[in-house]
Amino acid sequence: MFGILLIDKPKGITSHDAVYRVRRRLGIKRVGHLGTLDPMATGLLVLGIGSATRFLRYIEAEPKVYTGTMKFGVTTTTQDAEGEVMAERGIQGLAEDAIRQAASQFVGAIEQIPPMYSAVKIGGERLYKMARKGIEVERGPRHVTVHKFEISKFLPPLVDFEVSCSGGTYVRTLANDLGERLGAGAHLTALRRTNIGGFSVDEACALETASDADLLPLEQALSPLLVIDLDDDLANMALHGESIPATDDGEGSLAILTYSCAFLAVARRTAGGWHPETVMPRDLTISRG
Q1: 202 catalytic per annotation
Q2: Is the pTM of this model over 0.85?
Q3: Among the options 8, 17, 38, 214, which is catalytic?
Q4: pLDDT in tens, the chain (289 residues)
Q5: Neighbouring residues of 103: CB distance < 8 A, sequence distance ≥ 6
Q6: Which domains does the chain carry?
Q7: Residues ≥6 apart with Cβ < 8 Å to 145
């Protein structure tokens, strides 16, 4: 069993919890995920099942799109509703137009300071572990890209929004920084991931109903990569790490190699042809012919 599984993660569990539940439900140990969601967040998780885990790195995982709600006037230790309140400020006079204008200033290539309650490692230790000990350390800025940060509803102190961004962007930090920019403070109260690259949460299944029938073929998940179906000799060459002659005039750097229309490998274009970079186990490929 192998393929890509789209899950709609419920609130209150970690991404690792979701992986564990899928392992038990499908009866398979090898399950990996593409991008994490905080326990408070809901929405799309892209999982690799079985040998498909080794191909997760080839999936187009950007942009990531979220909808959410932030509350102005209150800051917390975690920048979301799960943390302790740090400060409360008045928001009288906070106008919708001012929020929209300030949000637009975060669109583009920006720098973010990772929150202390995050999985970032400094000195070999996760920041959230330090934070739980009451330790705060200096964190360097990280470069991320925000494609869209738009306000969809204004019901003060709550404001709904939609964000499209690059991987590694902390949406709760966006909410926190927007609040600071406006002098009111803010924290995230709800977050839902709706899209990862070309995948939509509308295509995802619930954890409690996930089955092998929900698996997407790797060819579909890796679209629009070129697909090259090989004959017996070329398939055996690929399985032994030998390059396959390139007969196309395309410009793509990656291609999917198949054998009898079964997924075989992802290959990279080189001067010597298509070089198999990541190959499926032989018992799942050549034996199908």
Answers
A1: no
A2: yes
A3: 38
A4: 999 999 999 999 999 999 999 999 999 999 999 988 999 999 999 999 999 999 999 999 999 999 999 999 999 999 999 999 999 999 998 999 999 999 999 999 999 988 877 777 888 888 878 878 888 888 889 999 999 999 999 999 999 999 999 999 999 999 999 999 999 999 999 999 999 999 999 999 999 999 999 999 999 999 889 999 999 999 999 988 899 998 766 678 999 999 988 999 999 999 889 999 999 986 544 444 3
A5: 149, 150, 151, 161, 178
A6: 3-59+200-216 (3.30.70), 64-196 (3.30.2350.10), 225-288 (2.30.130.10)
A7: 108, 109, 110, 165, 166, 169
Angle, helices 171-181 vs 96-104, to 10°: value is 120
d(CA 168, CA 164): 12
Pairing of strands 254-259, 226-230: parallel
Instruction: Give whole-number Cα distances, 185 to 75, 111, 193, 196, 259, in Å.
Output: 6, 19, 23, 29, 57
Q: Which of 152, 166, 180 is nearest to 73 (CA)?
A: 180
Residue carrying structure tokens 């393929």: 3
User: What is the CA 145 to chain-centroid distance, rounded?
Assistant: 14
